Structures are given as C-alpha cells and as structure tokens.
Amino acid sequence: MEKPSLKILGTGKRIGKTAVSGFVSRLLHENDHNPCVVAMGRGGPEEPEIVHGDEIEISPKFLLEQSEKGVHAASDHWEDALMSRILTIGCRRCGGGMAGEVFLTNMKKGAKLANEVDSEFAIFEGSGAAIPPIKTTKNIVLVGANQPINNIVKYFGPYRISFGDLIIMTMCEEPMANSEKIKYIEEKIKEINPDAKVIATVFRPKPLGDISGKNVLFATTAPKEVQSKLVEYLETNYDCNVVGVSSNLANRPLLREDIAANIDKADVMLTELKAAAVDVATKEALDGGLEVVYCDNIPIPLDYTYPNLEKSVLDLVKSAIFDFNNEIND
Fold first, then answer.
1. What sign does the CA torsion over 122, 128, 134, 139 have?
2. Which of 34, 140, 176, 215 yields a CA-CA distance of 20 to 30 A from 192?
3. 131 DSSP 8-state letter
4. How many whole angstroms separate alpha carbon 259 and alpha carbon 197?
C-alpha cells in the first residue's frame, strides 16, 4: 500500500467484521483521518466498485432500485458506505482455506484503487474467515466469544490471533458466552499474543433514522436468544415500541413469514443492511406502506475495566501512520 492501512480479520464468520469496520471508519472520519474502506464479500462485484458514500444519498428506494438491476445492494461495501458515509470499494471473493487464504478475489485490484482515490488511510475488511490478501501496516482481529473454544485456541485460531495489534472480542454475553468462557478466552488470547490489547464487547443496534414513538418491526441477523436484550435496548434508548422481531434476515422464506405476521402492527421496518435486507425486507415494507430505517450495530465494551475502545483504535491508527511514514523515510 502507498498509504497507511489496517485490515480487519476474524477467527470465524458472522462475528461482526462489518460492524467493527463501520465503527472504525466513522471514528477515523470524525477525527480527520480521511479513510476509505475496501471490503470483499461473496456477493461483491465482478470488478472492484467504488461507492461514494460521502456524496450520494443511499435511501431505501435507491437500494431497491440497485437490487432490481441485479446488484447485491446489501453487500458489505454498500453497508459500509451507508453506515459510515465514506468512500468504499467493493470486491469479490470466492472460497477461503483453513488458514484464511482466498481461492479467488479481486481485492488486489481494489487495493490499487485505494492507492489512487482521495483518502489518507485505507481499511481492508475480511470476509467470513478469509483474510484480506493485502500487506497492511496494522491489524485488528475479531474473536467471537460465541465460537467453540477449540476454533479459537486450536487449529488456525492462534495463527489469526497472532496477527492482531488490537483484538476485539465480540458476542460477549449470555447465552452466547458466560463470564467463565469469556475470561478463559481472554486469558488464552493473551498467552498467544501478549503484546496485543484485548477488549471484550457486545453489539447493540443503532437506528440511522428517527423511530421514536413508532411501532417497529425489527429484522436482524442476531440469534433469537438475544432478541429480548436488543428489544429492551431499542425501546429504552430510542423511545419506540417493538411489535415484532425476525432473526431470519439471512433466510428469505422465514423472513417473509415473519414480516407477514407483523406488518399490520408496524409503522416502520428497522433492518440491518445484510442478506435479504433490500430484496425482501425493504421491498415488502415499502409495498406495505411502511417506512424503512436501516440499523447499524455498534460495539460496546463490557465495562469500565477494559481500555477505552475509541482511544485504542485511534492510538492504533496513529501508530500505523507513524510506522508507515518511518518505513517510507527509511
């Protein structure tokens, strides 16, 4: 890379890489680091695609129009562009070996584009258990506390953990993980990579629009076991009434059933921008006369005993810039 950069990789799939990528991107943007994101996904474009999240209005109607043209409008780079409002570059990948090597990807082309665009820092987002095949200045590794222990501390888990300059544990709550499991994983991570900072977190929904005083139908990829916590968080923090929840955002037939069962009670469809969020959730909500509001997921540290997450990310970015500039000067 011709500019400082970091990559975000994980010890497995569905542990929050895109959510953390969005969090990091917004943080860098708010602190004048002028970032861009390069994301690879199974639904990514055949050729790297630039989305000017900082320039275009990414509305539900706009995304539905893209979907009807054959675009996977809920692909990771569209989510990054919507949640962070910065320039994103979408790439495709196919397959991923046990050590994270991708069978096929156009991310190297995406990296060349990232060198050319008007940004000062590049963030590379992994896909599933696949690692971005780009040499970056620093790395953030995600570890899902919901994963089987052996997948983290054995096989290729330690290999991935060893990459981390900052390690963010996600899904750190029951029933996905109890306090004993969380503590054990944290101790093992520190044994494998003693130099990395480790922060345990949970995800909570953050609507991108106003849902106060409204009856909400919420579509998410989060498991049913944590639905009650998410509903309580939404109702407490956003003054809304959640009338229905679907955890079937990645299962189109079941998602349609959940929407049909609750649409008459709702004023607004609140949905993450993933899987069937556009072609099913957005389309059926708009057809049914509902407002559509998209929803981010934000990582929140478990308690005050952990290092400050925002400061830890910004320190890592400053370190990446320092190391990159020193390497150039050497």
1. positive
2. 176
3. P
4. 42
